[in-house]
Amino acid sequence: MIAVLGLVIGVVVGLVVQPGIPAGLVPYLPIAIVAALDAVFGGIRAMLDGIFDDKVFVVSFLSNVVVAGLIVFLGDQLGVGSQLSTGVVVVLGIRIFSNAAAIRRHVFRA
Amino acid sequence: MSLLTNVMEHALDDGYADAARSRGQYGTSRMPGTLRGKLFLGGGLLLAALVLTVGAVQVRASAPVAAQERQELIARVGTAQANADQVQQEIDKDRAQLKRLQQQAKADGAGDGGSTAQLQQLQLVTGVGAAYGPGIRLVLDDAVSAGTDGGDNPRTAAGFSDTGRVRDRDVQLVVNALWQSGAEGVAINGQRLTALSAIRAAGDAILVDNHPLVLPYTVDAIGGSGMESGFQQNVDGGVYLEQLKADYAIRYSISSEDRVDLPAAARSGLQYATPSGRGGATP
């Protein structure tokens, strides 16, 4: 119940408040989204595996977003920002795909 | 490949398994039971939903703006091109009319040989008429190392880092040196220079009277035998070019020509200036 409430509140706050992203953070938003998706899919899979842990979920979500942003920031400072963000997207993308596959196996038994 | 395999096999955070094992609930912990756990989960989902929504809002907000700006730019380019076409047509029409009137005037004043000769002389001096004579040909080119268009990464190119390129300033100095050395007419890549000509830059391209030049830059000048040596010793001429060659490997060559043909200048006629009276010096 509280989880669903949190989900709904998050969407509503994002739509209603429309917080302005500082211009300096705009390049990191897509990476943050991919990292967030990775954490969410990981959480769902853990739930279906029966090993879900709320603390791990929240901490992994926050750290993924921060670390992905830091890697891209570092890459930008070194002049290889686009390459490093490609790397981050590839790694997180693979994780999202294999987690989604695991979820599919749980749900459809196939 | 081991990296990719590692990523594929450990798609799930190992922390989940560790935490479940340490609580002794491996395989049975589906949803958090305590209120604190539920709050944690709710807060995490709130953050995730917030990030996703903000991202979506951001993309949707910026996409129409970019498309709109692009459309406006396209419209402006189209308008400017149409304007340019129209002006060009007017110029062609006026030029044809001018030619007709000149021929008419010539025919009218056939008996008065003096004015026709004077007109030709004036055209020669102002550059409005084509001319030929002995002179020199100067060919300027970028250094071999200078990059071609589009090869530079705009993120890393620092604007003026490409020092092997001939700049508009170089061409201006060289042309000034030619005038100082006694040139009676100058043309760059077939563009005759007049008193009203402008040599300037747009990005990396050099424009003469708003016509972009193509490499190599060929400067033709009509002048007497003393012009070449005068140019070679001019600080803004031969000395400057030698310096450019030594410092930046810019290529140039000067050759003496028996006959240099200069075309007529494209620009003709003044729109606003009118003669202020008689008694001006006749050429």
UniProtKB/TrEMBL annotation, chain A:
<keyword id="KW-1003">Cell membrane</keyword>
<protein>
    <submittedName>
        <fullName>Small basic family protein</fullName>
    </submittedName>
</protein>
<dbReference type="Pfam" id="PF06947">
    <property type="entry name" value="DUF1290"/>
</dbReference>
<keyword id="KW-1133">Transmembrane helix</keyword>
<keyword id="KW-0812">Transmembrane</keyword>
<comment type="similarity">
    <text>Belongs to the sbp family.</text>
</comment>
<feature type="transmembrane region" description="Helical">
    <location>
        <begin position="80"/>
        <end position="103"/>
    </location>
</feature>
<feature type="transmembrane region" description="Helical">
    <location>
        <begin position="56"/>
        <end position="74"/>
    </location>
</feature>
<keyword id="KW-0472">Membrane</keyword>
<feature type="transmembrane region" description="Helical">
    <location>
        <begin position="24"/>
        <end position="44"/>
    </location>
</feature>
<dbReference type="InterPro" id="IPR009709">
    <property type="entry name" value="DUF1290"/>
</dbReference>
TrEMBL record, chain B:
<feature type="coiled-coil region">
    <location>
        <begin position="70"/>
        <end position="104"/>
    </location>
</feature>
<comment type="similarity">
    <text>Belongs to the UPF0749 family.</text>
</comment>
<keyword id="KW-0472">Membrane</keyword>
<keyword id="KW-1133">Transmembrane helix</keyword>
<keyword id="KW-0812">Transmembrane</keyword>
<dbReference type="InterPro" id="IPR010273">
    <property type="entry name" value="DUF881"/>
</dbReference>
<protein>
    <submittedName>
        <fullName>DUF881 domain-containing protein</fullName>
    </submittedName>
</protein>
<feature type="transmembrane region" description="Helical">
    <location>
        <begin position="39"/>
        <end position="59"/>
    </location>
</feature>
<keyword id="KW-0175">Coiled coil</keyword>
<dbReference type="Pfam" id="PF05949">
    <property type="entry name" value="DUF881"/>
</dbReference>
